[in-house]
């Protein structure tokens, strides 16, 4: 029986990869990856004569995960060691892998998670917001009506928390092309609350800044959003 390794990769700065991650990547038989071309370029950055083999790459993204799980399970049951990586950061956090891990554990196949880079943890620890509790909610719905309904439900849920509990910091991911629309809906529901936006984390142009949602909207009318964003806020509702 083989082992499935969940391997975190850099979210920007290549120096953030761990020695354990590199060693594991070049010791497994197969490497599941969202984009084989991007993973191939990552491997070239760390490939040296020290490593005696390079893993075979298997494309493994959201749309094909379900159909490829049986193939991967079969390889593991026949003794192959397999690594799973996403394009950047820690696998399974708004990335494929949950179905595979679930099936592995159901079949008593060993799963080992290697800690490493994460946009979620990097963003929240540099935000200046309280960390005693936080809710990570992935990406908000992409359609405007569903997104507005989602924010309203979130506000109601936060309002219903017991008074003796501190309100959690809420964390989202968002793509640049949808960010202005997300901020519009947020501003409408949460009454111009303050938001921390973190972008280009670990890269040269890393930015982490807090403004009211109306101020962000004004800013992005003049400046096009660029890079992937982590959006964070707390509320006193």
What does this structure look like?
With 237 residues, the chain is α/β, with parallel strands linked by helices. The chain has 2 domains: 3-116, 3-Layer(aba) Sandwich (Cobalt-precorrin-4 Transmethylase, domain 1), CATH 3.40.1010; 120-233, Tetrapyrrole methylase, C-terminal domain (Methyltransferase, Cobalt-precorrin-4 Transmethylase, Domain 2). The protein has helices at residues 19-25, 36-46, 62-77, 98-106, 119-125, 144-159, 179-190, 213-222, and strands spanning 3-7, 30-33, 56-59, 82-84, 110-114, 134-136, 169-174, 194-199, 207-212, 229-233. The strands form 2 sheets. The protein has a 5-stranded parallel sheet with strand order 3-2-4-1-5, sandwiched between helices. The radius of gyration is 20 Å and the shape is globular. The mean pLDDT is 94.
The CATH homologous superfamily of the largest domain corresponds to Tetrapyrrole methylase, N-terminal domain
Secondary-structure-derived class: alpha/beta
Q: Quick one: CATH class of the largest domain? A: Alpha Beta
Strand content: 15-25%
CATH topology of the largest domain: Cobalt-precorrin-4 Transmethylase, domain 1
Strand order of the largest sheet: 3-2-4-1-5
Calculate Rg over CA atoms.
20 Å
What composes the largest sheet?
5 strands, parallel
Outline the secondary-structure elements.
Layout: E1 3-7, H1 19-25, E2 30-33, H2 36-46, E3 56-59, H3 62-77, E4 82-84, H4 98-106, E5 110-114, H5 119-125, E6 134-136, H6 144-159, E7 169-174, H7 179-190, E8 194-199, E9 207-212, H8 213-222, E10 229-233
Parallel strand pairs: 1-4, 1-5, 2-3, 2-4, 6-7
Antiparallel strand pairs: 7-10, 8-9, 8-10
Helix pairs in contact: 3-4, 6-7, 7-8
């Amino acid at each position: 029986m083989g082992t499935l390794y969940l391997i975190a990769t850099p979210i920007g700065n290549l120096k953030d990869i761990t020695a354990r991650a590199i060693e594991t990547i070049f010791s497994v038989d197969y490497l599941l990856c969202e984009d084989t071309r991007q993973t191939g370029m990552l491997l070239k950055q760390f490939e040296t004569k020290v490593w005696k083999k390079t893993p075979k790459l298997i494309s493994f993204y959201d749309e094909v995960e379900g159909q490829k799980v049986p193939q991967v399970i079969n390889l593991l049951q026949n003794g192959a060691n397999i690594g799973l990586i996403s394009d950047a950061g820690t696998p399974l956090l708004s990335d494929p892998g949950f179905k595979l891990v679930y099936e592995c554990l159901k079949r008593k196949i060993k799963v080992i998670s290697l800690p490493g880079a994460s946009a979620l943890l990097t963003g929240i620890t540099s935000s200046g917001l309280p960390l005693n509790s936080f809710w990570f909610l992935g990406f908000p719905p992409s359609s405007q009506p569903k997104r507005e309904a989602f924010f309203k439900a979130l506000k109601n849920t936060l309002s219903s928390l017991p008074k003796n509990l501190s309100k959690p910091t809420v964390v989202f991911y968002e793509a640049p092309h949808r960010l202005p629309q997300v901020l519009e809906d947020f501003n409408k529901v949460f009454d111009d609350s303050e938001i921390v936006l973190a972008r280009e984390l670990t890269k040269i142009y890393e930015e982490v800044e807090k403004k009211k949602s109306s101020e962000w909207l004004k800013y992005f009318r003049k400046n096009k959003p660029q890079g992937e964003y982590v959006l964070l806020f707390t509320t006193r509702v």
